[in-house]
Amino acid sequence: MYDLLLKGGRVIDPSQGLDGTFDVAFEGGKVAAVEAGIDPSRARDVRDVSGKIVSPGLIDLHTHVYWGGTSLGVDADTIARRSGTTTFVDAGSAGAGNLAGFRKHVIEPSDPRILAYLNISFPGIFAFSKTVMVGECEDLRLLDARECLRVARENLDIIVGMKARVGFRASGNSGLAPLALAIEVADELGLPVMAHIDNPPPTRDEVLGILRPGDILTHCFRPFPNAPIHGDNTIRKEIIEARERGIIFDIGHGYGGFSFRSGRAMLAEGIKPDVLSSDVHVICVDGPAYDVLAVMSKFMALGMTLTEVIAATTANPARALRRDDIGTLRVGAAGDATILDEASGSFIHTDVMGDTITSDTRLEHRGIIIDGKWWQDGAGE
Fold this sequence. Notes:
The protein is an alpha/beta fold. The chain folds into two domains: 2-55 and 331-377, Urease, subunit C, domain 1; 57-321, TIM Barrel (Alpha-Beta Barrel). 24% of the residues lie in helices and 30% in strands. It has helices at 76-83, 99-107, 145-154, 168-171, 177-189, 204-210, 237-245, 260-268, 292-301, 306-311, 315-321, and strands spanning 2-13, 18-27, 30-35, 43-48, 53-56, 58-63, 85-95, 113-119, 159-166, 193-197, 216-217, 248-249, 337-350, 356-370, 373-377. The strands form two sheets. Strands 1, 2, 3, 4, 5, 13, 14 and 15 form an eight-stranded mixed β-sheet that branches. α3 (145-154) packs parallel to α5 (177-189).
């Protein structure tokens, strides 16, 4: 007997190349079957999702959900209820000095899954708000590689890599040192690094030059300065070379990480982001980033297909995380799914520069399945 059966939805699962009408069954917290015409009498809970899209549970690879423990954190449950996100990956809110609190008070009680990149800075992102902004990597005394390594090794069930924020706002005059140290720790762990970049120094070229295949460049379509494009909208050579070298391109929208100008230019040359993520935090949660579903809608407005934006929030981030149990509806995988609707209307989308575009569709979430159980109906806003 199945615990839950989703009947008649359009299943889009890029990890398996699926796009068609199927039923999806869950049992024991796992995906149990993806077939046409499963007998509803075989399930305790049956949900009719005809006319809706069923995708693997959405993964937001770049978020800040250490709510109550850091000034930039937002509540994962709240964001999940409006966006359909089933896995949040926190991008360095916590460092070695406060990961224990993040784990006990936020990660363990959470229904949506929360994984984390550990910040190379001991206190994590400790002073980030509209009124107070101090980069956690400005003072190199806050960086202790051995302590990072120890804490990461003790928490490898939730740690997926190292995070370093470099740039004028995040690391001041520390240059590449925080990122180089994060890479050294990641190398010991056999894990990737997620590199934030804002205004120089360091430059985009310097950051890309030390990243390894499988490392993640977040804010990859950011506006000037450190944009991926020249003034004439052509793609910078080092961006193309980094892509060819296996660097993972993550949007990390946030309050300053994504512009339509960069997005249009990159897509025009056939360079699509590997991962769509929100970088949702206290400054951008009410716009312009909102959540990963809003970012997906923006990229559909820019010309990416429905299948492409689902891949960039399921299979692709799962690959970046080196996980094969999420981001898929493969039998035996974690029992997470997101029910979506492609709504029609006139919708205005805004980037971090205040530029806008209009589209006639957007994605809205209609239901969340977590651990093989129906967790919540979509807000339907």
